[in-house]
Specification:
2 domains, 172 residues, 82% helix
Length: 172
């Protein structure tokens, strides 16, 4: 007996990976109804599997079109997620432009990293605590690198460029 998951593996095997993955997922039956409707067959995985096995070119064309529509829907959703993330970043930069906190955080991180590095040379870390010390130092170095990248990297340049553009727009 064929179930939606098995049909999903079949579709993935014939070059319809999105439909195959969807049929094999938690919403397989719901997607199966959609695929069956597009294929013009009964809402039964065995019937749809039999129709796919028969290799009807018209059925295959419908399935390829459905796969393309799903691919486009996934692409549109990914683009929307990127747009939302970019807008969120833009709003965060706008809200905190010119604020003193990034400078203070960067200096505090620099001091903390320097103190920890000095401590590594002056104090012996017990073997039981070595892993925790490595994790803490790694996290602090990552945060410090982000702070330095803000001041010297593209984030700072982007913030300055945005400020210049805003000034030019206001001067028109």
């Amino acid at each position: 007996m064929t179930d939606w998951k098995a049909l999903g593996r079949t579709l993935a095997g014939i070059g319809l990976p999105i439909l195959g993955a969807q049929l094999g997922g938690p919403a397989g039956a719901a997607i199966g109804r959609k695929v069956a409707a597009a294929a013009g067959v009964a809402d039964d995985p065995a019937v749809l599997a039999q129709a796919v096995a028969a290799g009807d070119p018209e059925l295959m064309l419908r399935l390829v079109e459905l796969e393309a529509a799903e691919r486009e829907r996934d692409r549109a959703a990914a683009l929307e997620a990127q747009r939302i993330a970019a807008e969120d970043l833009r709003q965060a930069r706008e809200a905190h432009r010119g604020h003193w906190m990034p400078a203070v955080l960067t200096l505090a991180l620099a001091a903390t990293v320097a103190a920890l590095l000095a401590g590594l040379f002056l104090v012996e870390i017990p073997a039981a605590n070595q892993r925790a010390a490595d994790i803490v130092l790694g996290a602090l170095l990552g945060a410090f690198t982000t702070g330095v990248a803000y001041w010297l990297g593209s984030s700072r340049g982007s913030a300055e460029k945005s400020s210049e553009i805003a000034t030019l727009k206001g001067g028109r």
